[in-house]
Amino acid sequence: MSAGFTPPPPDRGQLPSRRIALVTLGWLLLMAAALGGTGWWERRTRPAPQAPASPVMGRPEQANIDQRPFALTDDARRLRASQRKRLESYGWVDRDAGLIHVPVERAREQVLAEEGGHE
Question: How many Å apart are CA 34 and CA 52, to the nearest integer?
Fold first, then answer.
């Protein structure tokens, strides 16, 4: 403080009502803007309505429940057999490019021979 200056004593009998009113009004305007902006954003980004539930939903027999699992059908055995046949045979991958596939055992032997390995 500078010499010779004495601040006025605080006025304890009166609240700064104008300042309180302005701060309250500013806060209310800020909240109104925030709520309005949030509502606008939610309406703008709302997902499309979902399709109604199926009328058969909740009924005891809705789908074919007498299905056989894949492992019990003949499809798995046939798929495995076709995969094994391809692994154990020669054939064309791309005839135009001259690309063939060889049996796995033969390919292993060729790799070992090229690397100088022994069986």
Answer: 34
User: With contact defined as beta carbons under 8 Å apart, do 54 and 63 qualify?
Assistant: no
Neighbour-count burial for 49-69, b at 16+ CB within 10 Å, e otherwise: eeeeeeeeeeeeeeeeeeeee
pTM equals 0.33
Whole-angstrom Cα distance, residue 3 to residue 71?
99
Residue 73 has pLDDT above 80, yes or no: no
Q: Where are the beta strands (DSSP E) in the chain?
A: 91-94, 99-101
Q: Which helix (H) or strand (E) holds 36?
A: helix 17-44
